[in-house]
């Protein structure tokens, strides 16, 4: 009886995922997603039953869940872009994407590259849920990721130390962000204290990103002391990246600076960061002279006459 029920649950889940993919795919050009009331109710029920199934899946079940989950996940990525300016639609897509994540999570093994993929998907999904106000969903996803993290730390799978460090940082920083948004400031501080000292570029990027988000949020709430603390942490993470001399860290710094220049090109802190980057010993003077580094676009007049020597060190 249990076996037949488990098989029926598998069929229901995969059929529902396929139906969602079909409904959403044909509605991409419409103003609204167009999910019917029954589908929305079933989606909410599935998410309430997170994780989807308890029984260990067979190889064929893993394949079916992975295939349907991947198709639904990719559809949601497209829809997130299409409906990015429509909050209600984006929140609904976020929930559908969480269901797709649940499919992929159930299909993933607890070792090897499949486990790594599941963790990375969990971190991505938890972050998306937080950004769209689905905090309860994010909490459950982080709890599922915690089980995988625990198994990974105890295993002898030979995972690279830098990769494990990256996952540890991402896991704790997501918990920090979630706790802070839930108003559990003491827990956020406690979790932040668990962040390992990182020589990992992606880890520093995650620390900087979330500390900046918390600092900006606190600033918008006029919590100035709190804002200063978290923005200082974001800046420290960025400066830590300056001390790393790896291809990964340099790529991280370039990516972070490009994002800052796009959104905040004329702000003084961004100009300071650009100066700090110019002070790196590894900077090629020819790159600077060729115009790859645009320093003072839109800055106050009294700064435009400053001469920057590529050999100068800024601390």
UniProtKB/TrEMBL annotation:
UniProt keyword Transcription, yes or no: no
Coiled-coil zones: none
Keywords in alphabetical order: Meiosis
Pfam families, A to Z: SPO22
Leader peptide range in chain numbering: none
GO biological process: meiotic cell cycle; regulation of synaptonemal complex assembly
Protein name, per record: Protein ZIP4 homolog
Species, as recorded: Aspergillus vadensis (strain CBS 113365 / IMI 142717 / IBT 24658)
């Amino acid at each position: 009886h249990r076996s037949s029920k488990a098989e029926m649950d598998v069929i229901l889940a995969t059929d529902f995922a396929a139906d969602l993919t079909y409904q959403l795919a044909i509605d991409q050009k419409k103003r609204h997603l167009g999910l019917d009331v029954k589908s929305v109710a079933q989606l909410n029920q599935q998410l309430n039953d997170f994780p989807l199934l308890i029984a260990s899946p067979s190889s064929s079940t893993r394949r079916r869940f992975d295939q349907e989950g991947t198709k639904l996940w990719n559809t949601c990525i497209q829809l997130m872009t299409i409906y990015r300016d429509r909050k209600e639609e984006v929140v609904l897509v976020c929930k559908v994407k969480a269901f797709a994540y649940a499919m992929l999570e159930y299909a993933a093994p607890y070792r090897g590259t499949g486990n790594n993929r599941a963790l990375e998907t969990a971190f991505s999904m938890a972050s998306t849920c937080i950004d769209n106000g689905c905090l309860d969903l994010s909490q459950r996803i982080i709890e599922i990721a915690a089980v995988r993290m625990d198994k990974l730390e105890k295993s002898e799978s030979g995972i690279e130390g830098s990769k494990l460090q990256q996952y540890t940082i991402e896991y704790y920083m997501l918990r920090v962000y979630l706790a802070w948004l839930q108003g559990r400031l003491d827990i956020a501080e406690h979790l932040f204290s668990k962040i390992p000292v990182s020589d990992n570029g992606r880890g520093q990027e995650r620390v900087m990103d979330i500390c900046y988000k918390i600092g900006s949020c606190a600033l918008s709430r006029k919590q100035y002391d709190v804002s200063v603390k978290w923005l200082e942490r974001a800046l420290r993470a960025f400066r830590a990246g300056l001390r790393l001399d790896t291809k990964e860290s340099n790529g991280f710094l370039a990516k972070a600076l490009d994002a800052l220049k796009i959104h905040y090109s004329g702000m003084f802190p961004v100009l300071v960061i650009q100066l700090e980057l110019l002070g790196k010993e590894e900077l090629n003077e020819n790159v600077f002279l060729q115009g790859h580094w645009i320093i003072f676009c839109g800055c106050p007049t009294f700064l435009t006459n400053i001469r920057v020597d590529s050999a100068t060190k800024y601390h």
